[in-house]
């Protein structure tokens, strides 16, 4: 019996709850409809000017003014051929070269009578440069003579032809016993009087050198003349030693 009572009370509660819910939805729908109809009933005209202002795009700002043109300073360059006191090298060859015409020289003085540079009023065929020129031309000019060199070098053949006195050297006994023979080469200076000076040994056997030097010191030569003046002569002298006894 308890279960039947619960089931019956539960059905009633459900019917009341559904009824209340339907009434609440109906009231809400009425209120919502009234809220929507009130604005439509009291309509007001929108401001046209304000609407147009909102729809029209604003005027763009004016473009910026262009900057003023820069002032250009023109510098004029004067062309000149002289830079820092020196002649400038030309950069191009001119098509037309101007010729410099110099003034004609003055006519020579006294060309009709006399000669060029003569005394005015002189006779034809006179002396150039007048009286002074004739005196200078009349003075004989001597040619300076070059000083001859102090020492002249000649070959041994030339000095042999100048020899006027020849002393034969004595063959050294030790060299003869040792059967030593050969040549001794000497260099000497022949003085202006023909004597031997500055005798110097160039080569030869030591046992033959002394005898060759003693003999050559006694030789005499004819003076060697250069431009008519005797000069010293440098030459070479060869002394031969042979076991046959000649030298």
Descriptive tags:
247 residues; alpha+beta; TolA/TonB C-terminal domain; five-stranded mixed sheet; two-stranded antiparallel sheet; 9 strands; 32% helix
Write a brief structural summary:
The protein is α+β, with helices and mostly antiparallel strands.
Report on the architecture of this protein.
- By secondary structure, this protein is α+β, with helices and mostly antiparallel strands.
- The chain has a domain at 151-241: TonB (TolA/TonB C-terminal domain), CATH 3.30.2420.
- 32% of the residues lie in helices and 18% in strands.
- It is built from 6 helices and 9 strands; from the N terminus they run ααββαβαβαββαβββ.
- Strands 3, 5, 6, 8 and 9 form a 5-stranded mixed beta sheet that branches. A two-stranded antiparallel ribbon has the order 1-2.
- It is elongated and about 190 Å long.
């Amino acid at each position: 019996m308890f279960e039947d009572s619960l089931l019956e009370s539960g059905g009633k509660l459900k019917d009341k709850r559904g009824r209340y819910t339907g009434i609440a939805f109906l009231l809400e729908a009425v209120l919502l409809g009234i809220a929507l109809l009130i604005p439509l009933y009291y309509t007001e005209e929108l401001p046209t000017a304000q609407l147009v202002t909102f729809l029209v795009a604003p005027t763009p700002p004016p473009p910026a003014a262009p900057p003023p043109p820069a002032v250009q300073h023109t510098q004029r360059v004067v062309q000149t051929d002289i830079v820092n006191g020196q002649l400038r090298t030309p950069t191009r060859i001119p098509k037309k070269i101007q010729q410099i015409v110099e003034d004609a020289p003055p006519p020579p003085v006294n060309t009709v009578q006399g000669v060029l540079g003569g005394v005015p009023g002189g006779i034809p065929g006179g002396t150039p440069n007048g009286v002074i020129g004739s005196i200078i031309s009349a003075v004989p000019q001597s040619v300076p003579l070059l000083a001859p060199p102090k020492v002249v070098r000649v070959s041994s053949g030339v000095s042999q032809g100048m020899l006027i006195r020849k002393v034969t050297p004595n063959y050294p006994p030790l060299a003869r016993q040792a059967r030593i023979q050969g040549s001794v080469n000497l260099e000497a200076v022949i003085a202006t009087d023909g004597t031997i000076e500055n005798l110097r040994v160039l080569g030869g056997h030591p046992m033959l050198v002394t005898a060759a030097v003693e003999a050559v010191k006694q030789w005499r030569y004819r003076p060697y003349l250069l431009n008519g003046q005797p000069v010293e002569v440098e030459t070479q002298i060869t002394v031969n030693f042979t076991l046959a006894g000649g030298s």
